[in-house]
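Journal club side-thread
Mid-discussion, someone asked how the predicted structure for our own chain would compare to the paper's figures. Pasting it here so we can look after the session.
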Amino acid sequence: MKVFCLGGAGRICREAVLDLVEYSEFDEITIGDFNEALGKELVNELNDHRVNFVKVNVMNHDVTVEQMRGYDIVMDGTTITLNGISTACIAEAGCHGINLNGFGAEDEFSEIFKINNRTAVPGFGMTPGVTQMMAMHAANQLEEIESIRVSHGSFRPIAFSKSITETTTYEYDPDLPGRIVFENGKFVQVAPFARPRNIKLPEPYGETVQYIIPHSETRTLAKALSYKGVQLIEVRGTWPKQNMQLVRSLYDYGIISNPKVVVNEKEIGLMDIIGDYLLQSKAGQETELYGYSLHVEVVGIKDGVKKRHVLYHTHPSSDGSVKGWEKLRAYTRNVGIPMAIATEIIAKGLVKQTGVLIPEEAFEPTMIFNELKKRGIHVHEEIEVIDESVEETTVQS
């Protein structure tokens, strides 16, 4: 098997590459990146005969297609704004594909993947990705679904990379049509910082206030579970407290919409200036607490009994006590590892459907959970029986 790791030298995708080297059965692992220095540095660091480097510019479509031809799968670590461009290359090259974001730019290429008997799964990291697996694991135990609330705490610096800065601006864009909830059979658009809810995450994260964010789980879970009558799907998220305070201020002052200002007789986006500052500043590159924390709550009915399933995950500490999980890597490994796991599952032919698939259609949850467990990432489940006439009785499993 051969895998082409597009954007493989980036801070998150390199974690997926590291996981492929350590755990997968790929015979060739190619790092394809525009940054030649970082790509070759990673090849030297890995020191594995299966790993090589190719310089790639996805804006050069024809050349990129030829570079990808012959690979079983392309593991795409490019940014949100490039996913449509990169998927066009992957589809034409006749490869399977997978990426981290899943905002819908890939859907138009579904027929090409089908013609080539190939599969593409957009949006498979920790969230979206593992979150859908957690929701489906609970939903599979219930006959009817009332509500699904997906939440996550992403504890990382606000601007450790340009793509992360881009994500911040994207998710809180006031005019973004994709910031939606699913309610009573309809998708409803909401504003930034809508529907605050207290979510209790496991230590060391604790209780957080989270807001609706534009993530693909809202649409994919509505599609996957329509037959179970789901009435409400909400997806929330948070970053470290100081990051949220900054983003809220930028939003309140109208800056997050990136208004143009004139500086030295040149017109520049104000958010672009702030983003560049954060990329170059200590405040943008560091945070007090590092890691990732998922929390998924599913309420539904089984055998006439109303139940609440709460799933959450834990991972090795970022305090240096576990090698390889120090500080920022406690965040980046959480995102990169699930994509690597899913990459190999697809390449091995274990996903039988072709075309562009949502994660719920592609993967069986326990298979993902078992692979995560091998890496020290654990999914936990608690089940409550809800008696609405008396106090709720909690049963843990």
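Post-session note: The longest strand covers residues 144-155.
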